[in-house]
Amino acid sequence: FLHPESVLLPFLREQGYIFYTWDDMSVEALGTPLKDSDRQKNYELACIQFSEKTIAENYQRILT
Asked: What's the N-to-C CA distance of the chain in angstroms?
């Protein structure tokens, strides 16, 4: 669960991640994890976004 005012939300939405915020918290939401397909999609996006190559490229961008 993410804070509903997290600065990460626009990035995560733009990248297509599926997630819950604190505003989504309820007895039902707490008992309902992400579907396997949603978890797989998030995993695949994270592997692309945070691969060693993209981390190195972004680090070099910061340095220049």
From this structure: 34
Please answer whether residues 43 and 19 qualify as being in contact, where contact means their C-beta atoms are separated by less than 8 angstroms.
no
Task: Look at residue 3 and tell me if it is in a domain.
Answer: no
Say how far residue 48 (Cα) sits from the centre of its chain.
12
Segment 16-44 shows an average pLDDT of 81
∠ CA(56), CA(52), CA(41), 5° rounding? 125
**Range of 51's domain?**
8-63
Question: Could you identify the residue written with the tokens 């972004």?
Answer: 58
Please give the structure tokens belonging to residue 28. 């039902």
Distance, in Å, from the CA atom of 25 to the CA atom of 63, rounded to the nearest integer, reads 40
pTM of whole model > 0.85? no
Residue 13 lies in a domain: yes
Whether residue 43 is contained in a domain is answered as yes
